[in-house]
Design goal:
389 residues; 14 strands; 42% helix; 21% strand; globular; binds benzoic acid
């Protein structure tokens, strides 16, 4: 009898302890794991995403859903071979509640697999890997940016609209390059053009000369390029130095000229790109964001900063709905999935695959700005091929 009594008291005490621990876990800070590049060709992009994310958290007084935010960081080096280990440092070692990252599509695929396996919330503030909102889509994975197909498709619409009939493409030989070229080809060929050749080089190689020589020899009506960060700076300068600026029209998804203009200088002037953001979207929402960013960091924001800011807005939408209780996973995910995000790019909602449905702008480089000159495609949704949720 005594043994039964002792056991019963022990069980009650254990249950009470578990409840207290759970309550405590839901009242301390929310642990946010930032997995971004802080070295290599995408380092500046990672820095802007982090700044944008933290700006929104600061605007909310340092708390989301009533809870303090505590940051854990890992430099992912834009290296897919280290993605699983790096994600698990945050998930298993630091025990983060949410993962934010990353820039590079190959690394993001590794993060998505780790997030799916562990059931950790993942919000992607850049990497557009089509697969993540395709066959790898999941209820705990969201994106505040784009799928690679989207800016490729939007640029293809603009190029076809200009009457170009032949195009060559040039990009790094990894998932993002292949995805975005697919989007460009789809729209360009639907609009009556033909992609005659795809050129590529390994990521993050910047020895463009041999490929530029091929372009000069073949003289297509237009070239579609996907490069970003340090690689985009070098490509645009090499393009001009090779004398192509005055002979072959160059277009790209807007990553070619975003966050890069100070370094590209005269070589970038006049370039036309398509993207879901531009420097001169003259709305109160965007002006407020840009002013606050400039005050906080003494710099102008770019598309990456905006996507980081919106990743924090998406997390806030979920956390506010569950009053900071991350154990209410279904309610948390449902709130993010149906949120209307008041983004500096313009308001957006998420598709069923959790990817922004958004307008794509035509932009032209003027001075140090990507000036919006029109709309390429309104409310463009990613096709989310293969996503079953
Ligand atoms: C990507 O890897 O998905 C990516 C990287 C930089 C800019 C845009 C997309």
């Amino acid at each position: 009898m005594k043994t039964v009594f002792t056991f019963a008291v022990g069980a009650v005490a254990l249950a009470a302890l578990a409840a207290t621990t759970a309550a405590h876990a839901q009242s301390g800070p929310i642990k946010v794991g930032l997995m971004l590049p802080s070295s290599g060709t995408y380092a500046a992009l990672g820095d802007m995403i982090e700044k944008g994310f933290k700006l929104h958290v600061q605007e909310q007084g340092g708390k989301l859903g009533g809870r303090e935010i505590q940051y854990f960081t890992v430099d992912d080096e834009s290296d897919p071979s280290k993605a699983t280990d790096n994600a698990n440092k945050l998930i298993k070692r630091d025990n983060v509640d949410v993962l934010i990252g990353t820039v590079h599509s190959g690394v993001a695929v590794g993060m998505a697999k780790a997030a799916k396996e562990s059931g950790t919330l993942l919000i992607i503030p850049n990497a557009g890997a089509d697969a993540i909102t395709g066959p790898l889509c999941a209820k705990n994975i969201f994106r505040s940016s784009f799928s690679n197909w989207q800016p490729g498709y939007a640029t293809g619409v603009v190029a076809a609209g200009k009457g170009y009939k032949t195009a060559m493409t040039i990009t790094w030989n990894y998932g993002a390059g292949a995805d975005t070229v697919k989007g460009f080809r789809e729209a360009f060929e639907k609009g009556g053009g033909k992609v005659t050749k795809d050129l590529n080089l390994p990521f993050p190689n910047v020895e463009f000369q041999a490929l530029l020589t091929q372009i000069a020899a073949e003289k297509p009506d237009v070239v579609y390029a996907f490069f970003a960060g340090g690689g985009a700076v070098k490509f645009v300068k090499d393009w001009a130095a090779a004398g192509l600026k005055n002979s072959v029209p160059l277009m790209g998804s807007g990553f070619l000229t975003d966050g890069t203009l100070a370094a590209q200088g005269a070589a970038a002037q006049g370039l036309i790109t398509a993207l879901h953001y531009g420097d001169e979207i003259n709305t109160p929402r965007n002006n407020d964001f840009r002013n606050k960013f400039a005050v906080a960091y003494k710099a102008n924001p770019d598309v990456y900063a905006m996507q980081g800011y919106d990743a924090a807005q998406m997390l806030a939408a979920g956390l506010n709905a569950v009053k900071g209780d991350m154990s209410k996973k279904d309610a948390l995910y449902a709130a993010i999935a149906k949120a209307k995000i008041d983004s500096p790019r313009g308001p957006f909602t998420l598709s069923k695959a959790h990817n922004p449905v958004q307008d794509f702008y035509v932009r032209e480089v003027r001075g140090e700005y990507n000036v919006v000159t029109g709309i390429a495609v309104k409310a463009l949704a990613d096709p989310a091929r293969g996503c079953k949720m």
